[in-house]
Amino acid sequence: MAAEIHSRPQSSRPVLLSKVEGHQDVVSAALLIPKEDGVITASEDRTIRVWLKRDSGQYWPSIYHTMSSPCSAMAYHHDSRRIFVGQDNGAIMEFHVSEDFNKMNFVKTYPAHQNRVSAIIFCLTSEWVISTGHDKCVSWMCTRSGSMLGRHYFTSWASCLQYDYETQHAFVGDYSGQITLLKLEQNTCSVITTLKGHEGSITSLWWDPVQRLLFSGASDHSIIMWDIGGRKGRTLLLQGHHDKVQAICYIQLTRQLVSCSADGGIAVWNMDISREEAPQWLESDSCQKCEQPFFWNIKQMWDTKTLGLRQHHCRKCGQAVCGKCSTKRSSYPIMGFEFQVRVCDSCFESIKDEDRTSLATFHEGKHNIAHMSMDISRGLMVTCGSDRIVKIWDMTPVVGCSLATGFSSR
């Protein structure tokens, strides 16, 4: 990663404010408590903890609760102070936290899944708890009665979830690399569409209900922006991570996307510009530049008495080209390529130096990041992962910090 990091002035980096240590196993989720100097964490060590910042500046656990099974996912609703914890055994447990965050009462258990819970969303208006799991399903349950309202099954593990509270649409990412858009009803649901574009399992989703944009991160190291509301089917590809993208958060006020990967990479993408959509890869039996046959084109190879060539694709124009006609590599950030990628020789000539200016900043979190959460109003971010450490970051140096963007000074 280090070789690829763009050098920036020290002032434009995330500032590490605190490290929270104490868990004995992977920290699967960490959430900042709005308007409080506190963090809620859930871990594979079967504990859920609430950490409050003391006068010393250190975070100490005010609540330490042991569960029956490793904790795999968590949702927190601040206005009602309700915590929902998903477990490895498929159950979701609801707790209510006291106003001073020093006591937590058990409310009820939801038999949501037959296997590990991967994501949870709580909707107060409908009193639903919606979740995905490794039993290949999304379920929605009534929080008043604790009863199951509906389930929908997929062909692969359901790995992540986003929800539009207004329209009751759920976005479910799975291990096959597909995203399914569902319309949830009281006791049934309908499949609206499926989104296919990733070459690896979906690891994270973010829905922006204002601009109606869906962002997906995957194990193929890439992020795709899906324009759900406006230009139907329009997608933007973002490639800047060296490992699977574990978490994403779109900041609507500043039009920036924050993403974190398993190797500790933190990227901040500028989405406030007109980006170009990556082209569809074209199919051809011969190079679309020099017309030499590809190795499966037996007839042309025989007719021209030439050996077939390997097929490649130019990332800028999408044409099928041979190695000799695509000897150059270039970054092309306007299309989301922050790395050097294969381009045909004619496209390379058309790319100016200013076209190679990065449209993202890259930073090193220096720990495995499995989960990330942001408090956008304060410009704070919390990251956690398999190294059992929770880190709290001041992101205002890289995502804007003026009152005009909605951030208050800390």
UniProtKB/TrEMBL annotation:
Subcellular location: Early endosome
Residue ranges of domain FYVE-type in the record: 281-352
Residue spans of the WD repeats: 20-51, 195-228, 238-279
Gene Ontology molecular function: zinc ion binding
GO CC term (a single one): early endosome
One Pfam family of this chain: FYVE
Keywords: Endosome, Metal-binding, Phosphoprotein, Repeat, WD repeat, Zinc, Zinc-finger
SMART domains xref list: FYVE, WD40
CDD domains, per database record: FYVE_WDFY1
One GO biological process term: positive regulation of toll-like receptor 3 signaling pathway
Superkingdom field: Eukaryota
Function text: Positively regulates TLR3- and TLR4-mediated signaling pathways by bridging the interaction between TLR3 or TLR4 and TICAM1. Promotes TLR3/4 ligand-induced activation of transcription factors IRF3 and NF-kappa-B, as well as the production of IFN-beta and inflammatory cytokines.
Protein name (database record): WD repeat and FYVE domain-containing protein 1
Gene: Wdfy1
